[in-house]
Amino acid sequence: MSVPANTIYHFDQSTEKTTKWVYAFEEGNAGMRDLLGGKGANLAEMTNIGLPVPPGFTITTAACLAYLAKGEVAPANMMDQTIKAMADLGKKMGRTFGNNADPLLVSVRSGSKFSMPGMMDTILNLGLNDEAVLALAAKSDPRFAWDAYRRFVQMFGKVVMDVEGHHFEHIITQIRESEGVASDPEVSAEGWQKAVKEFKALIKKETGTDFPLDPWKQLELAIEAVFRSWNGKRAVDYRNHTNIAHDLGTAVNVVAMVFGNMGWDSGSGVAFTRNPSTGENVLYGEFLFNAQGEDVVSGSRTPIPIAKLQDEQPEIYRQFHDIAQTLEKHYRDMQDVEFTVEQNRLWMLQCRNGKRTAAAEVKIAVDQVTEGLISKDEAVARIEPAQIDQLLHPRFDDDAKKAAKLLAKGLNASPGAAVGTVTFDADTAEQLGKVEGKAVILVRPETTPDDVHGMLAAKGILTQHGGATSHAAVVARQLGLPCVAGCEDIRIDLKARQFSVNGVVVKEGDVVSLDGARGEVFLGAVKTIAPSFDDQPDLKTILGWADSVRRLQVWANADDPDQARRARSYGAQGIGLCRTEHMFLGDRTEKFQEAILAETEEEFNRVLDEVLLPLQRNDFYGIFKEMDGLPVIIRLLDPPLHEFLPSRESLIEEVATLKAKDGDSKLLAEKEALLHVVNLEHEFNPMLGLRGCRLGIMRPALNRMQVRAIFEAACDAAREGVDVHPEVMIPLTSHINELKEIQPLLLETARAVMEEKGVTIKYKFGTMIEIPRAALTAAEIASMAEFFSFGTNDLTQMTYGISRDDAERKFLLNYVERGILPKNPFQTIDQTGVGRLMEFAVSEGRAARGDLEVGICGEHGGDPASVEFCHKIGLNYVSCSPYRVPIARLAAAQAVIRERKAKK
Amino acid sequence: MSVPANTIYHFDQSTEKTTKWVYAFEEGNAGMRDLLGGKGANLAEMTNIGLPVPPGFTITTAACLAYLAKGEVAPANMMDQTIKAMADLGKKMGRTFGNNADPLLVSVRSGSKFSMPGMMDTILNLGLNDEAVLALAAKSDPRFAWDAYRRFVQMFGKVVMDVEGHHFEHIITQIRESEGVASDPEVSAEGWQKAVKEFKALIKKETGTDFPLDPWKQLELAIEAVFRSWNGKRAVDYRNHTNIAHDLGTAVNVVAMVFGNMGWDSGSGVAFTRNPSTGENVLYGEFLFNAQGEDVVSGSRTPIPIAKLQDEQPEIYRQFHDIAQTLEKHYRDMQDVEFTVEQNRLWMLQCRNGKRTAAAEVKIAVDQVTEGLISKDEAVARIEPAQIDQLLHPRFDDDAKKAAKLLAKGLNASPGAAVGTVTFDADTAEQLGKVEGKAVILVRPETTPDDVHGMLAAKGILTQHGGATSHAAVVARQLGLPCVAGCEDIRIDLKARQFSVNGVVVKEGDVVSLDGARGEVFLGAVKTIAPSFDDQPDLKTILGWADSVRRLQVWANADDPDQARRARSYGAQGIGLCRTEHMFLGDRTEKFQEAILAETEEEFNRVLDEVLLPLQRNDFYGIFKEMDGLPVIIRLLDPPLHEFLPSRESLIEEVATLKAKDGDSKLLAEKEALLHVVNLEHEFNPMLGLRGCRLGIMRPALNRMQVRAIFEAACDAAREGVDVHPEVMIPLTSHINELKEIQPLLLETARAVMEEKGVTIKYKFGTMIEIPRAALTAAEIASMAEFFSFGTNDLTQMTYGISRDDAERKFLLNYVERGILPKNPFQTIDQTGVGRLMEFAVSEGRAARGDLEVGICGEHGGDPASVEFCHKIGLNYVSCSPYRVPIARLAAAQAVIRERKAKK
Predict the structure, then answer these.
(1) Where is average pLDDT lowest: A538-542, B120-124, B727-731?
(2) Would the CB atoms of A652 and B656 count as touching at under 8 Å?
(3) CB contact, 8 Å: A809 with chain B?
């Protein structure tokens, strides 16, 4: 997967020579994320509020874009400005870059506008060479110096010179074996010296080029490699998944090195100012003595929890604790920080708003309002609506868990319930999960950025090693994927493609269940149940604040009383779509088939009236009771009749087989007769076929039966004191005359039922707007329809000429990946095309009927960007699946908050 | 078929009492067709220019609408005004209606705005009863009087009292037999007296009601029956077919009776002022002595040609000839007249613009310009464009005709070549022709208005009896159906469902061919060939005049050099659509399948480049040569790949059969492999699937090959001096990014070919606008596309959400018949919906690119109403099938003429 061909990098040649490409930390601030990247901007901010940040500077994202636009050539003057900045840096440090007698070492790190953890490249200890290492050894100790040098050569070889990492690992393994030690910290100075020598030989062999000894050359090459890493496979995959634009570029941060591995009075830590998994207001993180930052996150050695630092290094802990407080107050949000202690001196290396689970997001926001740190609006605005989806995902049924076989316990790294078949590498996970659409659990010793494409395609992650801030844990939390990390009980055998735990062997393809919130791994599929709001008081609080802000109502799509009850409990203010076709499925299919196959119109009507009418009446009655006081939009039968008949392909096959075998002639005749009916009903393009109101017009008895069932149920409920508000929705209208044809018949039925029952209820008749022509002739349609409901799925299909049944598989996802379409229009409303039709229909429809009720009932109703659009064009409500109601409530409130901001 | 449920009859209750419902002929004129109907308006006009018209008056269409709107109740005062008008009429005639001693008899005839010959009801001799008949007998002779009375009772019984006609015929047959005579004129006075008695008994028996003897009661009932006949089955069918609105209503004309059957100095005639079949400027028609008008058209007795009247009644002929001249000059058009001679006195009973064949229409228009009667614009404006389609329909190949078996010769009643299977009744013809889509020839002894639904569904009409103005001939000419009438050689056996001629028996289901221009009937299917303009100098003249008026260009859809040549000969100014998919059919399918089934991309490309490229280059080369100097738009491959693979259903069947039979395992494996590919390519909604530019984007090699073939051919032709103007059309664009993705690749190929060939040619790249979203984002699309071509077929499918492959069969035709849709939107552009998108796209597209070339290439390009719409919204051209080019040329000119008129 490479970056889309139509990506254009902004670069203004006319100002190339006069542009400032390099900013010292003192020159930047947190508001300059676009130009300096998140990391650079925050390093500048921390520097300027007086926190201990090593001296450094940032080469801008604009420089990166210029580099890419020019075909991987740095813009004029960029290196000159860098040389100048290095001189300033040297002054602050009292050393000179390139002076091998007293070397100044720097790190070179990527940093884009949006955090992409681990997606791009970093090089540490840059500035070392065969001479400088000796000076460093003299100043510190030889083991440290040679270890630093070998790390630098290793990273440089991999990142800048494209030598595959496993070659280096292989050399290290040999050295460890020859020295008879088990871990890297035990390797001697001589061992690392040998490693450097062999690394350089490896680089020469693999690339035909010598490892560069000139620090300036090293710096230039490293900067360019970081620029290029913007378009590496991992980074592009990640951006595609997280909808980050491909034309932003990355900044490069050059920072004076501080060493957490300069002995046991040194170390590195990674921490959050609050617990990113639960939101609890305590410092959360890990610290590893005598280590550099990547040792903490790599999971190769096990760090201590940050709280323990209080015992071991109380002064450092106090300093760090104070800094954390300062940062939270300054940024008004929970921070994720990296720091290093070099010989008892604390340095802040990074801070950013911390990634967190949805539960933590919600708790932190509510707590911070309570603490007076932020306003309610800020709390509402902060929460990514899609994220709270996690909170409403099914969790395991407690009884089912008790009954299931618990295999192992690990770290509860990212909450949620995941069930899937086990696989052991990212490529297979991607193939099974993304291409074949299967539920898979990716099981790895530990994950690295190279595994991200597999993680994206998995339902859950299980790792044997690594802690709460390990790569697997961080990425899983961010993706909302359940993750059990550091599950040391399991033994993974990658070759045999299986893991074993307490004598149980789980092979690739076996099913396991992960409870990410508890760190539990079960054998087999554990039953899940729907979540409840009652367990989530903070979410309730936030949504209450959201409700007081939003204008747009949120309704739900619900097809039975259970769904209606759930929708209401999630805050739905009505039912925007009750699909009656689901009521003809299951054990009713047979009865409905009986009607379809009826040979006379009388028989058809008899089955409808005697068999299906009572069932439908009962369906509706239950829904009306649940929705007491709220509107319920019931859509008349929408799909084509052949959806209720057996598959044509299997019938053809059966008939051919029976014929060829001279089988049971009675059965053959039956099957042939059925095939005949199925052939008659068959359509080449059923999406554009005989369904919706067309079916109602051709066979009015069907709709009449449904309207009778609706009004009988409504009258019955009303007599029991239920406040019913039925709204009858006619689907697939394309021409006003269709409504003129069918609506009077149905109104007549409604009136007749109310007369029979002696009850008068309020009701509406309206239509779906799901065919472009209906939107284009909205004024005409509104003359009959009392409400519009945009069926944005179909409207998108027809406006775009895309069949959802086929196109996603055939080309649409490919289009989105290649950037030909900015987004999948079935997930987020295409505002330019489909949205234009919607706006048109709203304005013409309302012009024709002032009190026209307009909503949307496609799947877009639960998509935050689409909800905002619906708010903007003035819809009355969005209707979405019950689980998405909270998301929509939040998104609708955020739309108002954004609108207010834009007006200021 | 009843009138559509949503028909609304205009009726203003507030003015009911003050409305003038009745107009004497002296009060009307030809401009009052809406109110008085065509017949009433023309009777008034003739009265006022001094022609001999019997006194009478018209009850308005408004009265009919009021009657229908009120639920079949006449409006207030209508009968009062009628009574007053009858009194005035009586004064002019010197008799009093209802005076049985000297009865005043009238005819009561329908007459709507548009002529619907024979579709509604007429009653003659109204005013007779048991007393009055005696007075009439005393004044004339008993046989005449009783004949008149029985005719009245018979018509009244059938039309007003709904007694089936065959009952009356049965009584007459018995009387003829009892008197031992063969024909009605030979029946005696006593015979007719007996008939009256038995008719009255029959009416009583069938209806339980007495035949009304009160003339006023007769009049009232007759008027209402005529009103009701507006919604009779025949009338509704006819209006549906001819697109006459159902809410117009009919007027009723009450006219003093004159009798053509008052002896051998009387008679009735039907005539055209010019020959309606050829257009020749001679009186054309028939006269029957001692007969009423319906005897002439019924075909039961054979009339004399009108020219013979000159010999037999020179004075009457002279009078009539003068009147014909006066009428033509007055109306400035050929007239169809009915007249009666009562005892040597000539009365004009009707005149109207005469129906005529397309050939006659064209000749008459050209002649009348030559004669100075009308202007060229009037000539162009007068011709119904759809009619000239007839002139361009295939005719029989002369050699094939010579080789074919000539069965019989009859009257050349309506020209054209028809081939079909024989059937003998209208219902079967309708079932086979309309429902099953087969070509049928309806063979009848003679036709009546009850046969019209079958005639509408037939390809041609053959009758045994009847002349050039017989029902079959008149209706066939109007419908543009080939008709051989009065083919007395054939003997029809309706029971055996066959006819025989000279020993040959033709059974139902056998195929015959009719040459309507020559009155020939052939056994079997005779080969047809395309017509040539050279045979039609008058058409060429008219179209030349049209060309000098129109602004809109007319291009053609042509897929090969032959079609291109024909299109050009018909006046096409370019090729608006060259479909390349047709070039992959026939014996090339196998080669293309080879490419589709290729297992590697290399193999796919190899087949494209080595096999298909040379073939395509050759296709295009021939077209460019034919279109020297004119633009040629070539559309890149549009359909989905599965269209080129075997049918999925048959493969499923074959595989199942092979499996069941344990058949050839190698063949089974082959078929299974093929089925696998077909399944992969299968789509649920191919219309919305992977085709058009989507295919090009997923497999760019296909389009690149095609563009290479286009430019190689164009360069080769250009080098030979041909003036080439290739325009490459990208199909199915929905998003500008699709063009951004594919167009640069194709431009690159074009440039490369021109460089290789060392030739530079002018060319354009553009796109189809056939997806609603493309129209909605026309401004964006025009940033890349140099031309738009509306694919109105697909645009209609998607805008309306209708699949043409299914919907016409499933509901669309039913919708049109029921009036739910005013027209089939695949025939005539839906201006309200689809048209709105088109207007939008034109205006936004042109705003973005001033010189954007915009045309239409759907089938609508040959539909006159759609051509007018395209003119109105400012398209550059319409493109249609070669045969329709002349129609479009004419329609484009008429659009200008109408526009000018509207501006005046």
Answers:
(1) B120-124
(2) yes
(3) no
Measured between CA atoms, the residue of chain B closest to residue A743 is B6
Sign for the pseudo-dihedral over CA of B296, B300, B305, B311: negative
Distance (Å, whole) CA B379 – CA B383: 7
Task: Please confirm, yes or no, whether A471 is among the known catalytic residues.
Answer: yes
Q: Is the Cβ of A667 closer than 8 Å to some Cβ of chain B?
A: no
Task: Note whether B35 and B251 are within 8 A (CB).
Answer: yes
Relative orientation angle of helices B142-159 and B215-229, to the nearest 10 degrees: 50
Decide: helix, strand or coil at residue B555.
strand
User: Nearest residue on chain A to B818, judged by CA atoms?
Assistant: A741
Minimum Cα–Cα distance from B796: chain A residue? A773
* Residue B450 neighbours by CB distance under 10 Å: 12
Contact A698 B648 (CB under 8 A): no
Pairing type for strands A106-112 and A250-256 reads antiparallel
How is residue A508 written in tokens? 């690739």
Start-to-end CA distance of chain A, whole Å, equals 42
Q: What is the pLDDT of residues B196-208, one digit of tens each?
A: 999 999 999 999 9
The number of residues making up chain A comes to 904
**Whole-angstrom distance, CA of residue A867 vs CA of residue A876:** 11
For residue A300, the model assigns a pLDDT of 67
Give residue A827's pLDDT band: very low, low, confident or very high (50, 70, 90). Answer: confident
Strand B335-342, strand B553-557: pairing: unpaired
Instruction: Write out pLDDT tens, residues A123-168.
Output: 999 999 999 999 999 988 899 999 999 999 999 999 999 999 889 9
Sequence-ordered list of residues with C-beta below 8 angstroms from that of A443, at least 6 positions apart, any chain? A422, A423, A424, A462, A463, A490, A492, A499
- Shortest distance between the Cα of B899 and any Cα of chain A, in A, equals 26
Q: Which residues of B fall within a CB distance of 8 Å from A732?
A: 801
N-to-C CA span, chain B: 42
Q: What is the predicted pLDDT for the residue at B502?
A: 86
- In the residue annotation, A676 being an active-site residue is answered as no
B836 CB neighbours in chain A (<8 A) are 776-777
Confirm or reject contact between B286 and chain A (CB < 8 A): no
Q: Which residues contact B562 (CB under 8 A, 6 or more apart)?
A: none
User: What ipTM was assigned to the predicted interfaces of this complex?
Assistant: 0.78
A660 shares contact with chain B (CB less than 8 Å): yes
**3-state secondary structure labels for all residues of B118-152:** CCCCEEEEECCCCCHHHHHHHHCCHHHHHHHHHHH
CB-CB under 8 Å, B801 with A770: yes
CA separation for the pair A228, B302 (Å, rounded): 97
